[in-house]
Amino acid sequence: MATTIPLHRRGLQASRLVLGCMPLGGGWNSEPITAAHEKQAREAVEAALEVGINMYDHADIYTMGKAEQTFGTVLKEKPGLRDKLILQSKCGIRFERGPGKPHQFDFSKSHILASVDGILERLGVEYIDILLLHRPDALVEPEEVAEAFERLTEAGKVRHFGVSNMGAGQIKLLQAYCKSPIVANQLEMNLLYTDFIDQGIHINQTAGKDGIFPEGTLEFCRLENIQLQAWSPLAKGLLSGASLEGQPSNVQETAALVAALAERKNTTREAIVLAWLMRHPAGIQPVIGTSDPQRIRNCGAAGQIELSRDEWYELYTASRGTKLP
Q1: How far apart are alpha carbons 207 and 278 in whole angstroms?
Q2: Fewer CB within a 10 Å sphere, N or C end of the chain?
Q3: Is 0.85 surpassed by the pTM of this model?
Q4: Cα pseudo-dihedral 2, 182, 187, 104, rounded to 10
Q5: Coil, strand or helix at 128
Q6: pLDDT tens figures, 200-244
């Protein structure tokens, strides 16, 4: 398991696990934040700190901005905590705003700049460590993105920049115009969503014709020292306790294998699922999207688990539901 991850080589001493803050702040609506929401955030952060997590992942859209606002309350209650954390947020998704203003992705300079101001205000901080562009904008003008990044750097509002859900070609296009290096790429990766592995395994095979993971992206990020981050790394809990009723045989068999390995290694099922991702030599950072304190603690054990090559491939083969070619 890689101990040095790409962010470390950028001078960011981030924890291997990241706490995803999407569940904070209540529902995806305009209802006010309650004391219960603040308690939920406080307990989630305390559990994360307890297991050594110092990096926190946000987005301006999470619970319509309330996730950042609630997290900001936690920071306000704990003077000095902000300086110990690495804060990451995302922008670029705009929900439908009425007739003629459909749901869209927006990497315009004005939207990026306005989004960051909103992020900083809700979190109650002067800067964030990393800003990710959330989903690819079909109308992106890389010159505008570069101008926005430069303005944010000069103003001291953002220290590093990255992307989310992008392929190698899209990152190359942005990097050709941006002075600041792209330091991270966040993608869906987990033991039940193995396209990032399949894409390489299925080279020159008909089995790969329906793959959707962008070819060469994993290798490109490794070559360019871009941190790969995995969203939904726990596969919605299907391998660590969620109901398996109606799930296909490969999911049930993988869940049984995860449970057996957890018992054998005297650890949690969450730790096994995350350790599978972390065993990959790319140094993947799982972004765990739970606010349950006990589940966060269960995840924290992943750093102490070392899967052998045989165990890693056994899990991968079970997930595939078929032997390797």
Answers
A1: 26
A2: C
A3: yes
A4: 170
A5: strand
A6: 888 778 777 777 788 899 999 999 999 999 999 999 999 999 999
